[in-house]
Amino acid sequence: MSDPQPRYRRILLKVSGEVLMGDAAFGIDQDTLSAVAEDIAEVVRQGFELCLVVGGGNIFRGVSLAGKGMERASADYMGMLATVMNALALQGALEKVGVHTRVQSAIPMDAVCEPYIRRRALRHLEKGRVVIFAAGLGAPFFTTDTPAALRAAEMGCDALFKGTSVDGVYTADPKKDATATRYDCLTYQEVLAQDLRVMDASAIALMRDNEIPIVVFSIRGRGNLLSVLTGDGVHTTIENPKRAALAG
Ligand code: UDP
Fold first, then answer.
1. Domain at 10-247, CATH class
2. Does residue 142 have its Cβ closer than 6 Å to ligand 1?
């Protein structure tokens, strides 16, 4: 590792489906996929341990079809299947740049990938493999935020990294409000009380209860993931007040 004492060694990176579609309105953009894979490969080469939870919003979100009359649970299962497609796409892109990976799905799909088995996933991480968790929790009425938080806790991760198209948490939507400013640090409680919509409230509460920091950064810029991990990159950290005060 370039920094002799990076704060985080094992992280869970949540990649939303929207990131994978690049500038398109739907699906997977190959160039974006390759860029994300290259960034992940770089941090693996530096000795960090990484697991991923991938979303499915670039293909399908249950809530959108439920809004048009489809039963919500069935629509959510379709959303979970979309996350499996993204996981396989990411796996392919990562293997192309020399990263060893395993996909584990919360909905067993023997012919496609491994089922989610916590101890096996931990072993993969210890061996330097990137584990991609697919199909969320395997249960409807969730997005992939809560599975990202749950897997981060189960895998003993030092932090949950949320890779978005914005470089942190802002006072208002920076795409709509030019006066919006970025927070360097927030507490879980501030995020929940101010309804800052960084992640689902259940995910934030889970990270608060297990004292796992959430790091929000832009995954769009090449090399950002490594910069944030080694302490240089722009981001917002969400953590408990004691840690936040020490960092400030
Ligand atoms: N989903 C679900 N349970 C889960 C995870 C995901 O039902 O545990 C479904 C849900 O319909 C969700 C979709 O899968 O909208 C895709 O995930 P998400 O919306 O989180 O994708 P992202 O916004 O990260 O691209």
1. alpha beta
2. yes
